[in-house]
Amino acid sequence: MAIATDVKPADYKTDIHPDWCPGCGDFGILNAIRQALAELNIQPQDVLTVSGIGCSGKTPHYIKSYGLHTLHGRALPVATGAKLANSELTVLAMGGDGDGYGIGAGHFVNAGRRNLDMTYIVFNNGVYGLTKGQSSPTLRRGEKTKSMKEASIQDNINPIAIAIAAGYTFVARGYAMDVKSMKAILIRAIQHRGTAIIDVLQPCPVYNDLQTAEFFAGRDLATAIPRVYKVEEEGFDPLVHDPEDGDEIIAKKVAATARSFEWGDRIPIGVFYQVDLPTLGDGFDAYRPDAPATAMHKQAQPGQDMSPVLGRFR
Amino acid sequence: MVVNKLSWLIGGAQGSGINVSAEVFAKACSRAGLFVFSNIEYHSNITGKHAYYRVRVNQKPIHSPIDGADLFLALDRESLFGDVDAPYPTHRGHIEQVFAGGGIIYDAGLGVSDDQFGRDDIRLFSVPYGEVLKEGLSRGGVDYEPRRHDIMRNMVSVAASFALLGMKMDEIVLLLRERLGADRKHLVDMNEWVLEATSDYVHERYGDDFPVHLQGIDSRATPMLIRGADASALGKLHAGCSFQSYYPIAPATEESEVLTSLQGEFPITVLQGEDEIACINMAIGAAHAGARASTATSGPGFSLMAEGIGFASVIEAPGPVITIYQRGGPSTGLPTRQSQGDLRFAVHPGHSEFPHVVLAPGDVQETLSLTFKAFNYADQYQLPVIVLMDRFLANSFWTVGELNFEGLKVNRGEFYEPNGSDPYKRHKVTDSGVSPRSVPGQPGGQFVTTSDEHNEFGKISEGIPNRHAQVEKRMRKLAQIERDAPVEDRWELHGTEDADVTVVAWGSTKGAILDAHHVVEREGITVNYLQIRMLRPFPAEAVATILKKAKMPVLLEDNFEGQLGRLIAEETGIKMERMLLKYSGRPFSQNEVETGLLQAARGEPQRIVMSTEKSGL
User: Fold this and answer.
1) Which end of chain B is less packed: N or C, by CB atoms within 10 Å?
2) Among A5-9, A157-161, B47-51, B611-615, whose mean pLDDT is lowest?
3) Which of B271, B439, B452 sits opposite A84 (nearest CB)?
4) Do B269 and A84 touch (CB under 8 A)?
5) Domain range holding B128?
6) Cβ contacts (< 8 Å) between A89 and chain B: which residues?
7) Min Cα separation A95/chain B (Å)
8) Do the interacting molecules here have an ipTM over 0.90?
9) What confidence score (pLDDT) does residue A295 get?
10) Domain holding A122: CATH number?
11) How high does pLDDT run on average in chain A?
12) Last residue of some domain: B368, B400, B432?
C-alpha cells in the first residue's frame, strides 16, 4: 500500500486529451471518477480501471492509474480476474450500454451473483456511438434516433431491475451531467464491500437526439422541471438494514425494481438498492482460513514441494 | 502360463460402476509393483449407455492400449452382444475381442447359453452374481436385497477376475477403504465379505489354471498411477499458478476438479465462469494483475476463447496458459472421444497476426514439464501459451515410477524498475521484442494499455511508423523463442538417426508409437520417431533437416486431414506423402500403429486410415 498523502483530482489527469465529441456525457463521468478517487485518497498506483470497447472504453486512457482497455463486452471478466489475483487493488470496470447489456450481457448478469468487491460503471446513452448510432439495448421500442433508418422494433431492457435480480449488492443510477451527485454515488459504490453497479444516463450529442441534455433537464416540459430527480431525497431508502432478514431483502428488491421502471416526465437517479453480503473473496478465503486469498499472486510460491500431494496418486 | 502380461476389459452400462471397478483393479495392480495403462471409452451420457474400460498390465513399462483382451468382464448383455437390436445399432459387443485362450466373466443370471458366444476357443466363466452376493452378505449376517446391494455386482466381477488371475483380495479391500473412507466402514465390510465369497466360488468352480497370472513385485516402490489431467494440475501448481478459470466441458473438467480439490493446500483460486469467453478474460485479467494464470477447456470452449488469445497477445499479458483437451469435433462432435483435430486451430486461433506459443506434450511426464514451462514462456515473452492435450491423455491412467520435477526452474521474465526520470514505456521496442513489465499496484510503473494498436506507452496509435514498430516488435518474440528454447521443448528424434521408416507425430500418440516400434523392428524394419512438441514457433529447420534425410517419413495423427503434415508443408515446403490417420474418435492402439507402419513400409496406399469399425467399439 502507498503512503497516505493527499491525492488530488489532478493526480489522476493524463497528458492526453479525450477524443470524445463536445457535449458528450463521458466527460462528466470521467471528472466524477477522478474526483471520487481523489476524495477517497486512493493512490493512483492502487487503482486498476478496466474498460470495454466503444467511446466509453477509452476512459482508462484519461485516468492516470493502471488501466486496461479490453475487448468489446469483456471488461467485467477481465476485472474479475484482476481483482481475484490482487484484492488490494481498487478495481473499476466500465463500458457502454451496448458493451455491458448487449455483447457483455452474460458477464453483466453473472458478475452480480459473485459479489466480488469492485465497481462497474455503465455509460448508458441508448446508442452505439462509435459505430455511428445504432440502437442499443436500452433504447425503447418505437424510438428512432437520428442515424437509424427505422424506429426500434425491439424492447429495451431495464438494467437496474436486472442488476437487482442478478444479485448486485449495490445498484445505482447516475446522471453524467450532474458531476456532483455522480461523484457522491461513485464514492459510495467504491466504499461498498461487494459488486456495485452504476448505470449512468448520459447524452450522446451526435447520435441520440431523443435523450439529450435538454430532455433530461425537462426543457421540453410545460413545467420545465428537470426529469432527473434524486430518489433518496424523496424518502426512498435503498439500504437493507438487516442483511440476515430475508424478508427485508425481498421487500427492498421489490421496491427498488418497481421504482426503476419509472420513466417519462420523472426519471429517478441515486442508489436503488444496497445490502452487505459476503463477497466472492470471502468465499475463497474460507478454503484456506490460515492464508486468506487476498493478494493471491503474492502468496503463490513457484516451485514449491509437491510431495505431500503425490501420495494420492499412488 | 503367462505371467504379468495382461489385457483386461470391463464393459457395462454407464453408471453401473465400471469406473470404480477398473480404477480399483488398475490401482491394485500398480500397487503390486506392475506397470499399468488404462483408459475408458464412454458415451456423452450419464447413465445407461455402453461404456468400457481397458486395463493393460505388464512387468515392463507400457504406454498404450492394445486391441483385444485376455479377460473380459461383462456387466450386462449389451457388453457381450452389442446393441444390434436397437433402432440405430452402434456396436456388436466385445466377444470377438477376446484372445483365443482368454476368458469372459459374466453373470449367470443373464441366461446366456454357451453356444450364443459363438467361440469355442475361449473360456466362459459364468458367475451367478446374485447368489454370490447373497452368500457374501450372509457371511456378515446381512440379508441380500437386490435393490440395495446390486450396486456391488461390479465388485463381484472384479473379484472373480482377481481370483482367476491368482491375486489376493487384500489390496482391493484396502483401496475400497481408502476410497470410501472410515465413515463408510460398513460398505467396506460388505464388499469384503462379497469379495471373499466370490473368490471362494471362482476357485472352487473354475480352479486356478487360467493361462494368465499376475504376481506382485514387492521390491518396487509404490509407483504412481496418474492421468494427464492430474499431471497438468500438478504442473500448474508447481509453477505457482494461483488462478484457474474453467467452464464445465468434457474432457477438460477433470483438471479443474483436481485443482479445486487442492485449493485448501495450495494458494490457488479456481473459479467457474459463466462461459469460456469469461474464463479466458478472467485468466487474462489475473495474469495482467500479477498472477500466473490459466484456464482449461476443449475445442468448443476454445472456439469461444479465440478473441481472448489475440487480446492477451496484443496487450502483451504474461499469459494466460490455456490447456486445450481436444475431443472429437466439429461443433459438439464426439464430446467424450479422442481427437487430434485442433492442431491447426491452436496454431491459428484468432483473427490477424500475433505471437503465441503452442506446446504439445506426449505423455504424463511431458504434461507436467511442458505445463510448468508454459508459465515460463508466458512470463518471459509476455504472450498466451497453449498446451495442447487431448481426451486420451487427459483421462487415461499411466504408471510412472516417479514424476520428475528436476530441472523445472521458475523464470518470471523481465520486470521494470523505475529509474526516476524516464517515463515508463510498457511496450518499449526492444531487440528481443520483450518489454520489461510492471504489475498493477507497483509504484512508478503505472501504464494503461489497450487491445487497439498502441504506441510504446500503451496509448492508442494508428500512425504508420508506430504500427510497423509494434507489429515487428511483437512478432520478434517468436524468433527470440526459437533462439532461446531448448531442443527438448521443441522436438525429439526417438531412436536411431537412420531408419527405414520415420514416424512423424505429435501429442499423445507417443505411447502407441513407442510400444509399437519394437514389434515393427522385429519384422526387420527399423523405425525412428520424430516427436514435435512445440507447434508454434515451429522447429522448421530441424524438421526439414530430418525429413530430407528420412527414407520413408510417415505422418501419424488422430485426425482426417493430417494437420501436422499441412503445418510441416506450410513451414518447410515439404509435403508429407504417407500418412497413417484415425478419426473414429478413438485413440490409436499399439496394434494399429504396428499394422499401419508395416503397411506403410510395404508402400501402398499412401493414406492409411485406421478404424475399429468392425466391432463398432
Assistant:
1) N
2) B611-615
3) B271
4) yes
5) 2-213
6) 289, 440-441
7) 14
8) yes
9) 67
10) 3.40.50.970
11) 94
12) B400
User: Per-residue pLDDT tens for B350-374?
Assistant: 999 999 999 999 999 999 999 999 9
Q: Measure the CA–CA gap between B304 and B314, rounded to whole angstroms.
A: 18
Q: Minimal Cα–Cα distance from A238 to chain B, Å?
A: 28
In this complex, the residue of A110, A284, A296 whose CB is nearest that of residue B291 is A296
Same domain membership, residue B605 and residue B512: yes
The total of other beta-carbon atoms located within 10 Å of residue A127's CB is 28
**CATH number of the domain to which B382 belongs:** 3.40.50.970
pLDDT recorded at residue B459: 97
Rounded to a whole number of angstroms, the distance from the CA of B300 to the nearest CA of chain A is 18
Identify all chain A residues contacting B234, using CB atoms and an 8 Å cutoff.
306, 309-310
**Residue in chain A nearest B401 by alpha carbon:** A314
A2 within domain boundaries: no
The number of domains in chain B is: 3
pLDDT, one tens digit per residue, over A37-60 is 999 999 999 999 999 999 999 999
Q: What is B25-39 written as a DSSP string?
A: HHHHHHHTT-EEEEE
Judge whether residue A3 has pLDDT over 70: no
Has residue B422 been placed in a domain? no
DSSP secondary structure letter of residue B556:
E
Q: Does B125 lie in the same domain as B12?
A: yes
* CA gap A57, A53 in Å, rounded: 5
Contact residues, chain B, for A280 at CB < 8 Å? 271
Q: Are residues B131 and B68 in the same domain?
A: yes
Residue type, A29: I
Closest alpha carbon within chain B to A49? B448
Interface probe, candidates B31, B242, B402, chain A, greatest A C-beta count within 10 A: B242
Contacts of A83 in chain B (CB under 8 A): 285, 289
User: Is the pTM above the cut of 0.90?
Assistant: yes
Last residue of a domain, one of B146, B180, B213: B213
| A31 touches A40 (CB < 8 A) | no
Residues with Cβ within 8 Å of residue A112, at least 6 apart in sequence: A163, A165, A166, A167, A168, A195, A197
Cβ distance of A78 and B266 shorter than 8 Å: no
- Domain interval for residue A241: 11-313
Beta carbons of A108 and A116 less than 8 angstroms apart = no
- Total count of domains within chain A: 1
Weakly modelled stretches of chain B, pLDDT under 50:
none
Give the pLDDT of residue B401.
84
Q: Do the bridges between strand A127-128 and strand A134-135 make them parallel or antiparallel, or are there none, so unpaired? A: antiparallel
Percent of chain A topping pLDDT 90:
89
- Among candidates B265, B269, B307 on the partner chain, residue whose Cβ is nearest the Cβ of A296: B269
What helix, strand, coil percent values describe chain A, rounded to 5? 40, 15, 45
Contact A80 B223 (CB under 8 A): no
Same domain, B205 and B256: no
